[in-house]
């Protein structure tokens, strides 16, 4: 924002195990209070025998509290799932492998220093964080079902404005990394963090036509129409190239993506597509 000092990134102090456990207990106490309050406002008694929770809820005490209290598992992927609370105003992301601090820090940073709408983060634990629940229809559904031509043009204009804001936030020393200077994450390898490229020297021909002067900027990293998440600092081409890998080409949003960015990255797209196909088959 004009006239305001903007830090390059924010790294919170590490918490010891005892304080992390206390964070989890406090989150569970908060859930219980919200459940009791919700039941009282609806005039419903607290059940003596709660229903059997979702199978994934048994893997973590906080998720069990949420589901028993009337919450709902709204998304699940491997050891990570999203649960809304009984009040349907907040959503908790739970990951048994641990929450990546860069994800939360990037959301808070963008919320404070740009005009991009980002869900407010309320509580953060070692394996979970709770944020504002956005109930609006996803762009993937709205693009084909409810948006007229004028609305679509407005969406494209707004996305271009948001992307331009992200691109003013550059990585320190040009490093490719997650937010806070941590290891970069490559979603092609199930979100494995690594500081080294998996490309072999024999595959150098793949990248021979790619530009080597990309700006390293704050990147959404997965601009599919159903996603609103933030990643870290990556080459500027990634923002446009990545959504076209396995995209739903029948959805008109992906055709409009070309109008959001000032430059095409055809060579980068070919490399991304080839690399994705090869690594999927273990090459």
Automatic annotation (TrEMBL):
<keyword id="KW-0808">Transferase</keyword>
<dbReference type="InterPro" id="IPR051678">
    <property type="entry name" value="AGP_Transferase"/>
</dbReference>
<dbReference type="GO" id="GO:0016301">
    <property type="term" value="F:kinase activity"/>
</dbReference>
<protein>
    <submittedName>
        <fullName>Kinase</fullName>
    </submittedName>
</protein>
<feature type="region of interest" description="Disordered">
    <location>
        <begin position="35"/>
        <end position="60"/>
    </location>
</feature>
<keyword id="KW-0418">Kinase</keyword>
<dbReference type="InterPro" id="IPR011009">
    <property type="entry name" value="Kinase-like_dom_sf"/>
</dbReference>
